[in-house]
Amino acid sequence: GVVADLTVASGADDAGGAMAGASGSGDKRVVFKTETSGAELTDSLLPQKTRRFILSAKSGQMLYARVAAKGPDMTFAIYNPDGSVLLEETSAAQEYRGELWQEGDHVVEVYNMANGAQSYNVIFVVE
Predict the structure, then answer these.
(1) Count of other CB atoms within 10 angstroms of residue 15
(2) Distance (Å, whole) CA 126 – CA 113
(3) In 3-state terms, the chain is what percent helix, strand and coil (to 5)?
């Protein structure tokens, strides 16, 4: 289900409670609240781990994605529903804004390339 007041639901298909270790790797489905098109989430990642944020969107919608890292060496990439690359892996210092051309689950994958755990915020807007 949806966690408290946040707009994140745990992935139903992760085996063995991968979401239990909040700072390990894992998938999070982003569910926008009614009447909103954006979400801001706080998360953390252990070194060399990734987190996949899954956003359902339609072709022709605009996606805005920003990763606000609390340290160095965080990157992110965006994948289309068919698995093709929408945005090559890029520094968290860059933000993404672009039109989507496929319908379905888009994946924003965040990477912690640093040697220590890092916290960060992610902001997603689909409109």
Answers:
(1) 6
(2) 27
(3) 0, 55, 45
Q: CA–CA separation, 85 vs 109, rounded Å?
A: 11
In the sheet that 62-69 helps form, which strands lie side by side, from edge to edge?
A: 38-45, 118-126, 62-69, 96-99
**Tokens standing for residue 3:** 């966690």
Q: How far apart are CA 98 and CA 121, in angstroms?
A: 20
Q: Summarize pLDDT for 23-45 with one digit per residue, the tens.
A: 567 899 998 877 778 999 999 99
The torsion angle over the Cα atoms of residues 60, 10, 116 and 118, rounded to 10 degrees, is 60
Output 75 or 34, whichever has higher pLDDT.
75
Run of H or E including 55: strand 50-57
Q: Are strands 50-57 and 26-30 parallel, antiparallel or unpaired?
A: parallel
